[in-house]
Each structure stands twice: as C-alpha cells, then as structure tokens.
Design a protein that fits this description.
Elements: H1 2-25, H2 35-41, E1 51-60, H3 68-81, E2 87-89, H4 100-103, H5 106-110, E3 117-126, E4 129-138, E5 144-153, H6 167-177, E6 202-206, E7 212-215, E8 219-220, E9 222-226, E10 230-237, E11 243-247, E12 256-257, E13 263-265, E14 274-275, E15 281-290, H7 308-314, E16 325-335
Parallel strand pairs: 1-2, 1-3, 7-16
Antiparallel strand pairs: 3-4, 4-5, 6-9, 8-14, 9-13, 10-11, 10-12, 10-15, 15-16
Keywords: Signal
InterPro entries: DUF4384
Protein name: DUF4384 domain-containing protein
Length: 336
C-alpha cells in the first residue's frame, strides 16, 4: 500500500512538471491583443508592402526620460511583431539612429545590415491609462512614414510598473543637462540633440536610444558624434548620484574626437564591456566637448567627491579663455 501511495505521488509530481513544461513552452501571448493590427495599419500608405522595423525608445512625454512602463510596452511590441503581417522586427539595437547626426553615420555605427525603418515614441498618463504616440520613420531618409496614438488601458498595466518619472530623476536630469552658461557653451544639453542653429554640437546616445530602459545583465554601449574637432570627456553618474570619469580611461581613448567621427564606447578593441545590474534605478551619462584642452584629467573609474554636478564641473576647466564647449546628457533606467 505504501509503495502504491509513493508511486501515486511520484506520478502526480511528474504530471505537474510536464504540465508546467508544456505551459512554459507555449509562445507568450501579448497582453494588448489589438496591437499587431495597429502596427500593420501604420504601413497602409507606405510605398513598400512590408518593412523591417528596428525598435527605438519610448520616453515619458517630451522629457526623454525613461520609466519602467517603457520597457513593459517595448516587450509588448516585441510580442506583437511576431503576429504582424507587414512588419518584421529587426532585432538589433538601432535606436540611436533616432538622432539625425548618428543616422547620418549609420554605416559606421551599424554596418551594412540595416533595418528599413524605426519605431519609437512617447507616452503620457491619464485617468483611463496611458496614451502612447508611436512614430514610424524611414531610417535612410528620416522621413515620417506614419504616426498613431494607442491607448493602453490602466487594467492592462501591471501594478508594479511605474509610468511617470520620479521627482528626483527630473531634478537630477535638469541639474546635469546644462553645466555651462549660455556664453560658455556651444549648445544646449539635455537631449543629446542640440538645435541646428548651433555651430558646435555634440550628440550622445545609448545603443537603445534616448531614455532607454535596460534589464539586469544587458550591455550598454554609447554612441557619440561631434560637429567639430574637440577634446572629449564622458562621465557616468550612478543611481546613488556618484560621478566617475569613464572616457578617456586606462584601457584606451585619446580624449579627442574628430568632426563627423562615429565614436562607439566601449569600442570593438576595448578590453571591457558595460554589463548593467544592481543597484537598480536611474543612471546618467554626461559628455562634454571642448575646442581647447581640459586643464585637469581625473582618475578614471574612481568616485569623484561631492555632488555629481560639482564633481563634473571641477574637471571642466580649460586652459584658454576663448574656448567653445558643447555638452549632452543621456538618461537610462536599469530594471531587474
């Protein structure tokens, strides 16, 4: 009798394991069931019947700041792409090409294997849920293919997914966005895409674009361009507000960037990679370019004393009074 009961429990456990395995093997269904058809309709007036689409970033309103909702919605888009008839997901990181300066150097950054278009957008919260504006752009010309608004009901959004950026994130981004007065800077910082009227522009993006959201274990790559030959510093500010100089560093980097150069960091010859993980939260990358050399060079990958703004500003003194400088900031989020 004991042997039969033991055998019964063993068979029951085996049955449960098999059921769990079968359920796990089933393709995951998107929560937003109508999203595939919405995506297909975005190509209704396009001259091509189908397209390979790269996935750009989604940020909160016009702030270019990330929140966990962005990654949740991007994951939903990936599930929806598997069910579209006209769109095929180009599953390589081309989001940085949202920046016109980087798009102009597409081949340098991304090679010849490319997507036809890129889908990106912004979102805002209201009483009923979240309204997402999705924009589809031709990647070679930058021309608009289609734009549509999609309402995500509040009931579909997991309770642990925040939609709005925190006050601390907004304040930190504002403080870091422009370290120079208008008389000393060559361009307005904050988005990494300064106005065309400025004669000195530095652009900065992650491989997932502006306001990207990463998960634990994913790698971060930075993409930088400059409109002038310049000296360049890149700083990292972690979730605790501690700043470090990360480029140039002991592993490489000349500390200079040429006009029109496509700088990728870490580069293919660098002996390290940025693998993101704990502590989770918001981090910042600040790039500062100067037409004259910087007077000091901080120790690389070492915590700088004081607030991030003060610590970075200390290292931006230059040796000439006729210096022109430009700056850019990118913000990203790390999730489990």
């Amino acid at each position: 009798m004991r042997k039969k009961k033991a055998l019964g429990r063993l068979l029951a456990a085996f049955f449960l394991v098999m059921c769990a395995s079968i359920a796990f093997a089933q393709p995951q269904e998107p929560t937003l069931a109508d999203l595939p058809s919405i995506l297909d309709h975005m190509l209704d007036n396009h001259y091509m019947p189908s397209a390979q689409v790269g996935l750009g970033s989604f940020t909160y309103t016009d702030t270019q700041l990330p929140t966990p909702f962005a990654r949740w919605f991007e994951d939903e888009l990936r599930l929806a792409f598997a069910k579209t008839a006209k769109m095929k997901l180009f599953d390589k990181q081309v989001a940085a090409a949202m920046d016109p300066a980087i798009r102009a150097l597409y081949g340098d950054f991304f090679g010849t294997d490319r997507a036809d278009s890129i889908l990106y957008g912004k979102y805002a919260q209201d009483d009923r849920g979240v309204l997402v504006t999705m924009t589809l752009t031709d990647l070679s010309t930058g021309g608009l293919i289609s734009e549509t608004r999609y309402a995500v009901p509040a009931s579909a959004i997991p309770s642990n997914v925040n939609v709005q950026p925190s006050v601390k994130m907004v304040q930190t981004a504002a403080a870091l966005s422009q370290l120079f007065t208008s008389s000393g800077a060559g361009g307005q910082a904050g988005s990494g895409q300064q106005g065309a009227a400025q004669d000195f522009v530095v652009t900065l993006s992650t491989d997932r674009g502006q306001g990207a959201v990463y998960r634990d274990g994913e790698r971060l790559t930075l993409l930088v361009t400059s409109s002038k030959d310049a000296y360049l510093k890149i700083y990292h500010v972690d979730v605790n507000g501690v700043a470090q100089l990360i480029w140039p560093n002991r592993f490489g980097g000349s500390g200079k960037i040429k006009a029109g150069e496509a700088l990728k960091f870490p580069g293919p010859n660098d002996k390290f990679q940025y693998v993101l993980g704990r502590p989770y939260g918001t981090e910042y990358i600040k790039a500062v370019a100067s037409t004259k050399p910087f007077a000091t060079m901080e120790a690389d990958f070492s915590d700088l004393q004081g607030s991030a703004v003060a610590a970075i500003s200390r290292g931006l003194t230059v040796v000439s009074s006729d210096t022109t400088r430009a700056e850019a900031l990118v913000v990203y989020e790390i999730l489990p």
